[in-house]
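Section 3.1: Structural characterization of target chains.
Under the original work plan, the team committed to producing a structural model for every single-chain target entering the pipeline before any wet-lab resources were allocated. The record below documents one such target. The sequence was received from the expression subgroup and is listed exactly as submitted; it comprises 171 residues.
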Amino acid sequence: AESDGLGVGFNRFGRLALFQARTEQTIVFYQVSARSSRAINIGQTRTRGLELEGRGEGPWEVKITGNLTWQQATDQGPDPSYHGNDLPFLSDLVMWLRLGRTAGPWQPWVELSWESEKFRDRANTKLDKAPARELFNLGLARELEPDWLGVAGRLTVAAEVVNLLDNTVHD
């Protein structure tokens, strides 16, 4: 435990990761009617980005966890009308912050998440762009260590309410 300057112990963890992925055969699902989607192989894609993750545990069993991901995912397929466009349904920037507490065997938490705007089509049509969104979520989790999973086995049971404030969002 390290001191945060207030005389209270506070454990901290952080991670920074750079990533890049190239795929040869990327499958994207497109909605073709109210109840069905169709899989389309768009070919090559490239995704690169940066992820920053942090966690802190303070007094009274309070935990703060956060994540920030910036990514650039582009269509690298052979069709010139889509080559270089952003992949649909992937935000460039995603952030979330979670505050939780261990209360006996249960861990309740509240979370605020934010995603930047994103295209909903392969052509990157400005009129078919999902706006940025923020969501407030609540959850409750419990970790179990059943014998049938072995010494290092752990199972988490969780329930959550996503978008508690009923923010109008759609993809």
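The longest strand covers residues 9-33.
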